[in-house]
């Protein structure tokens, strides 16, 4: 097809090249750019897209966005170079999308005779504080029979353990595991869904989506100065968490340090994801007092039992011994993790009940000192267990951030080994 | 338990009775009230909750909210009086929730020894323009073998037909039908999910949820002056629709008139819901030009082929004969419906593909002159069919609005017959 044909086709199709003009005063005050057919338009003083480049990946200590689309992929190609090429292509697309730009030449910027580079449903939408965070699962490093898929076996971090079976686990293999994950968080779900879908599309033939999870409401906070969101049990969730501003706590509990090893993980973290179903109907028939005793916090204010305000220091002696907060608090468990979960509702379960609950996400410096001992304790003792069931599970090594335009996801892992 | 015990318990639990104070400057500028433990707090000049009382139900011509939670219920009780009591209770709860108030005494306002009246996850959230719209399915009036369940058989509207089988239909019975439906629309999905869940809870034992659908992004508009949203195929959707301000078109095409009959439906409408799966992976490999020819509109601007701007009048001769818009346009189909659909993404389908598409919702004065002939035409001819499949289906009679504090959903149907 000649250039001329394309041009005249554009004319026929009524293309004006005018792009898309949008009122960009969006909610949340965090908008830097608006996708358009041709390019990005500054959105005035409304706020900023979340930076993609940095020593750590965004989406971990970033102030928690409202919505989530989380996807787990299996790698289908057996060719290491093809996988590396995909990671580079993904990085490039993520760099653009997080800044409110379309993939490649966009949804309408390319040739009329070719499929568009971008699927287009985020055209005209602001960046919505989109972050894209990648993780590498244990199965990327080691096959089930101990084999080496991509020459990475020797570089699997010790901290990236296969999670043990916890008491009460009822895991669905179709909602568990995966070689790679992408966590997409944004204030607009359309932007998060668009990002995952475009990455899946770029990966077509090389990776296949294993499972994905939409989270419609955040259940955590890294900004204690803001209103704490509520989970589907009606309680404030995220009150006591690692704050985005607390770099000291992050260095201690979230970020892998250079001396932790392996070196390619310095500045990275470990992600545990658990799909936790809530027995909502049973919970809803539980007296208020019992609900509060189960968590060790009041429902309205979210104050520790026996205290007045949400952020008052807890009085553990006023709580029942098997209260969730008492068991989970660092003073008692010895564990600090950064929680970043979302509520989900995925239709009904065939028994007339909502399939709803918490898609739990935690970041930590070492899974062995983080989620594993804490969940072992909770799975054994927590009075909340009567009302929940863990039905999906995954763990990933989250590499450090992409430094600059030339860097790409996983470079430290693949380039040096 | 004595009043005293409750009071002292409250003290132990740290209740201050201070309620929840929230910054109520929310997105969309449409917020009247903020749920709190005790009562409702005015949210200043930020906007208004959508009125619940009126001649027609809200949620039809109401400016389309961002998110959807749609639930279909089977009635389990065989007792008509119990069903009527439920409808009254539901109305009362809907009246409160749509105005930003909790159900009953709220999540923390009741007795500590009793389950709270409200599940609490919307505590502190503004009304978010929540609308709750009820519909009655054919099976409420007539059983499969032609029986009469609740003495309503004679009052089934002729316009509430069982939908015929359309070419290409691949309907899942578990995502189709239902005796009752509730459409919950709100700008915050947490508010929509909260509303459905609390209605389900109130109905426990009398109704059971048959299926439910979350819609994360609107794909229609009743406000042509605002930015048109995009569907998951990347096209603007809702450009040419019945406008919320066009009362004449609504009276002609959406609202049942007194002389249409039956009398209990005057001021009501008929709702068709279709879960339409998109073959996203195939679509994403289709050239831009072909995509535009399929719809008969450009992707960037959304202009009719051969025209310049989105709202320019279409030139059907410039479109292919099987273009979606050409086939569906009232000038050519003779049909006008009000579309109010949402995009969905429900994880993956077991084949590595997103289970995603359009949850199509249409309102019309008579299904026989609305969805049925139009979909018959589209199912036969539409070039879009290669990329979509209808997998769920339901139809409901949507009664008129609740007039005042004493009125309730379905009163005209149940009280007069
Ligand atoms: C559906 C399941 C769960 C629900 C509904 C839930 C809910 C809550 C709530 C309401 C709080 C109190 C507010 C706050 O400080 O954020 C809390 C605290 C906490 N939860 Fe959970 N949680 C769940 C599962 C888990 C799991 C699986 C873990 C880790 C293995 C966990 C770890 C924690 C920690 C560390 C705290 C903070 C305790 C403190 O420092 O005071 N939670 N959770
Ligand atoms: C996944 C399936 C569908 C997709 C992606 C889709 C998409 C679109 C798009 C992009 C437009 C043009 C913009 C606009 O005017 O809103 C449109 C118009 C329209 N569609 Fe669909 N549609 C779908 C299914 C249906 C169905 C099932 C019906 C009815 C049976 C329908 C009826 C209409 C009507 C009436 C118009 C307006 C035509 C006009 O007056 O110009 N659509 N649709």
TrEMBL record, chains A, B:
This is Deferrochelatase. Residues 102-114 have a biased composition (Low complexity). Keywords: Heme, Iron, Lyase, Membrane, Metal-binding, Oxidoreductase, Peroxidase, Signal, Transmembrane, Transmembrane helix. It comes from Actinacidiphila glaucinigra. Its cofactor is heme b. Pfam families: Dyp_perox_C (PF20628), Dyp_perox_N (PF04261). The lineage of its organism: Bacteria, Bacillati, Actinomycetota, Actinomycetes, Kitasatosporales. Binds 1 heme b (iron(II)-protoporphyrin IX) group non-covalently per subunit. Residues 228-402 form the Dyp-type peroxidase C-terminal domain. The keyword Lyase applies. GO terms for molecular function: ferrochelatase activity; heme binding; metal ion binding; peroxidase activity. It is an enzyme of class 1 (oxidoreductase). Residues 57-216 form the Dyp-type peroxidase N-terminal domain. GO terms for biological process: iron import into cell. Its EC number is 1.11.1.-.
């Amino acid at each position: 097809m000649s250039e001329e044909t394309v041009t005249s086709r554009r004319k026929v199709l009524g293309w004006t090249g005018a792009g898309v003009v949008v009122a960009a005063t969006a909610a949340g005050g965090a908008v830097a750019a608006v996708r358009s057919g041709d390019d990005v338009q500054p959105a005035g003083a409304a706020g900023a897209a979340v930076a993609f480049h940095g020593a750590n990946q965004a989406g971990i200590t970033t102030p928690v966005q409202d919505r989530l689309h989380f996807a787990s992929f299996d790698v289908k190609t057996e060719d290491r170079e093809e996988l590396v090429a995909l990671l580079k292509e993904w990085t490039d697309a993520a760099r653009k999308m997080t800044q409110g730009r379309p993939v490649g030449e966009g949804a309408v910027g390319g040739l009329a005779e070719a499929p568009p580079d971008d699927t287009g449903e985020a055209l005209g939408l602001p960046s919505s504080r989109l972050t894209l965070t990648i993780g590498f699962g244990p199965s990327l490093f080691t096959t089930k029979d101990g084999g080496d898929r991509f020459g990475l076996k020797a570089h699997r971090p010790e901290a990236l353990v296969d999670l043990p079976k916890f008491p009460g686990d009822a895991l669905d293999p179709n909602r568990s595991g995966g070689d790679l994950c992408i966590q997409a968080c944004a204030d607009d779900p359309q932007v998060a869904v668009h990002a995952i879908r475009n990455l899946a599309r770029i990966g077509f033939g090389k990776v296949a989506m294993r499972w994905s999870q939409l989270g419609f409401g955040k259940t955590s906070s890294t900004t204690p100065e803001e209103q704490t969101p509520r989970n589907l049990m009606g309680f404030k969730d995220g009150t006591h968490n690692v704050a985005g501003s607390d770099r000291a706590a992050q260095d201690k509990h979230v970020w892998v340090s250079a001396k932790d090893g392996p070196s390619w993980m310095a500045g990275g973290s470990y992600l545990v994801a658990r799909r936790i179903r809530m027995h909502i109907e049973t919970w809803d028939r539980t007296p208020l007092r019992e609900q509060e005793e189960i968590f060790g916090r009041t429902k309205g204010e979210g104050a520790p039992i026996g205290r007045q305000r949400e952020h008052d220091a807890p009085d553990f002696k006023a709580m029942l011994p098997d209260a969730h907060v008492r068991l989970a608090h660092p003073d008692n468990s010895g564990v600090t993790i950064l929680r970043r979960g979302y509520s989900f509702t995925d239709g009904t379960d065939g028994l007339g009940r909502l399939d709803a609950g918490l898609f739990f996400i935690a970041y930590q410096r070492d899974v062995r000192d983080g989620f594993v001992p804490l969940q072992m304790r909770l799975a054994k003792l927590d009075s909340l267990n009567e009302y929940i069931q863990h039905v999906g599970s995954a763990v990933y090594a989250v590499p450090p951030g992409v430094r600059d335009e030339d860097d790409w996801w996983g470079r430290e892992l693949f380039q040096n080994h």
